[in-house]
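Many introductory courses stop at the sequence. We go one step further.
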Amino acid sequence: MRSIFITNILLLMTLFILNSCGMYRPVSAKEYPPDPDKRVQKNLEEGRGVTLMGALPGGKKKGGTFDFASSNELWRASLDTIDFMPLASANYSGGIIITDWYSDDETGKESIKLTIRFLTNELRSDAIDIKLYRKDCGVVQSCKTYEETGNLANEIKKSILKKAAIYKKENIKKNKRFYPDAGGDGIKGDMKSIF
C-alpha cells in the first residue's frame, strides 16, 4: 500500500515538473487542424517538423544545389588554359583566379601575371574579365609593372570560352537532366559567333 502511495506521489511530481518546464502547453483547437495530415503539413511549413527524405505525409523532398568548381565549365576551362602558370590564388566562391608572375625566358627580365574574374556562371562572351600584367626588369633589377592592353588577353579569353563551350557540350551529351532548358547545344546568344 505504501509503495502505491509513493508511486502516485512520484507520478504527480513528474507531471508537475514537466508542466513547469514547458513540455506540456495547452493549445487551442482553432490553431491546429484536427486532421493529422494537415497538422503535419502546418508543422512542416513552420519548420517544426522532421522529415526523412520526404517520408512524412505532405513532406516535400528538397534537394540541394551544389556548385562544385569541377562542374563549372568556365572555371575548368580557365584552369586548363593557364595550367602552365603557377597560381597565386584561386577562389571559386569569390570568382577570381590570380596567377603568380610567370616568365618563360631564363633571364627573368620579362614576366606576366593574369587575373581572371568570373562575372557570371553562364557561358557568355562577357562572363569573364581578364587582366594581363607585364613586368619588365632592367639590368639592376629596376622593374616596371604595367597592365598589358594588347591582344594577348583577348586571345586567352577566346581560348577559355572555346574550351568552356566544348566542356558544356560534353556535359550535355553525358547528362541531359542538368541542362533541361538548353536548346540543342546549350550555348547562349553571342557565344555562337566565337565558333
